[in-house]
Amino acid sequence: xxxxxxxxxxxxxxxxxxxHGRIPKYYVVKxxxxxxxxxxxxGGTLPTERDLALRFEVSRETVRQALxxxxxxxxxxxxxxxxxxxxxxxxxPLSLASYTEGVRRQGRTPGRHLIGLDRFPCPEALAAExxxxxxxxxxxxxxxxxxxxxxxxxxxxYVAVARVPHLDEEFDPDSxxxxxxxxxxxxxxxxxxxxxxxxxxTPREALLIGTPPALPMLLLHRISRDAxxxxxxxxxxxxxxxxxxxxxxxxARA
Length: 254
What we know:
Strand content: 25-35%
Strand order of the largest sheet: 4-5-6-9-8-7
Mean pLDDT: 82
Helix content: 25-40%
Order of helices and strands: HHHEEEHEHEEHHEHEEE
Number of helices: 8
Radius of gyration: 22 Å
Number of strands: 10
Distance between the termini: 37 Å
C-alpha cells in the first residue's frame, strides 16, 4: 500500500477507506458532516437529521449512524434539542499534577461537586491494595469533576483518617485534594502507580455525570504514596471518553 503524501499525522490511514474502495454510506455522510463542522466551528449548530438526509440524499437512519459516531468521538455534543460542534478534548497529564492543574493549563475553569464524604472501617480489598490496616478508619470522598461547569468525570478518593483527621472540617470539597495535603498539611507526594482501562459507566455513574450509559469512559486507578513511600490515597476516577485524552512524557533510560 502506498502511503498518501497528504496523510496528516495521527489521522486514520487512507482516511479509514478500505483498500477495496467500498465505503459504507454512513461513513461518507460522516466525512461530509465533518467538513460541515469545520465550516461551522466550535459551538456551531448542525442542521437537523431531516435536513442532512435531504442534503446528502440518504436515509435519516444513515445520518443518525454518522452522528452517533461523531458524538461518541466527542466531536459533537447535544445541546437542548439540537446538536452542536464540540470543542477540543481536555488533555489530562499522566503525572502527579492534580486534575485542577491539568484543566487550568488549557484555559478552562476546574471545579468539583461534592456527592459525599463518608467514614468507615477499611475493607480487606482496600487494605490489600494500599498497605493500610484492615479495619482502620478511612475516608471516602466522592466528587463530580467539572470543567467550565460541564460535568466531565466522577472521582472517588480513599484515604486513612489518621493521615487527614479533620478532612470533614478543614477541606473545601471544591478545591484540590493534592493542594490540601501538600500546602496545608505538609504531606508531599512521592510517587504513584496508575492503571487506565476503558469501561461503560454504571447507571448511577451515568446519572451523576449526565451521560448516556452507552458512552465509553476512561477509568483511571491510582495508588499514591508519600515521600517516605507510605500509602497515602487510593483514587478511582471515571473520565468521559468523549471529552478526555491522556498525555505523558516518555524519557529514554540507560
